[in-house]
Amino acid sequence: MEDRRTSLTERRRAATQMEIALAAAELFAGPGGAGTTSADVTAEAVARRAGVGLRTFYRYFRTKEDAIAPLLAQGAERWLRLLAETAREMPLRDALVTAAGRALAPADDEGRESWTWTRGLLRAAHADPALRAVWLRVNHDTEERLVPLLAELTGRPAGLGTRLAAAAASAAIRVAVETWALGDAPDSGPGSPADLGVRAMRDLTANLDALA
């Protein structure tokens, strides 16, 4: 019974955290995903939009900018999971390219909505050091998690070559998404995150097999 209560509490905490994160993302993204400045968004506004008190907000996040991290990390988690699954079916370089395309393609209406606020967030982060620091931290954490995954998939030690491969794969995703966000291309088709991600991943991992 205790385990069930603990699990329920953890699920509620996770749900509240994501509600706050989504509220923060929508506010930072601005109307239509145009992006806004950090000065125009307050922790009070995020808490109010999420339907929680300011004390609750600070129980989960240290700053208003930190509140977007769980949503960004959710996308990174999907990319890592898809890579692990895809790599069982094909060579690693092909798996990296395929997983990038799958992870960056909107699967449904909810996925398309998430790309709207992602574009707004990254436009805001482009001119806002605090928001950009959160984005870069999430990318760095993803790269660090990718190192042991690549080592496991290749059977190689997590040395220089593996770290270079992880850095290249992470950069491909990051640069593709940033490039799309700062432009006007749609979320699918030519110029979309998936299109740019596949192209970048293919180019940056061209010499993957040569990494020692």
From TrEMBL:
It holds the Pfam family TetR_N. Residues 42-61 bind DNA. The keyword Zinc-finger does not apply. GO terms for molecular function: DNA binding. Residues 14-79 form the HTH tetR-type domain. Keywords: DNA-binding. InterPro entries: Homeodomain-like_sf (IPR009057), HTH_TetR (IPR001647). This is TetR family transcriptional regulator. It comes from Actinomadura harenae.
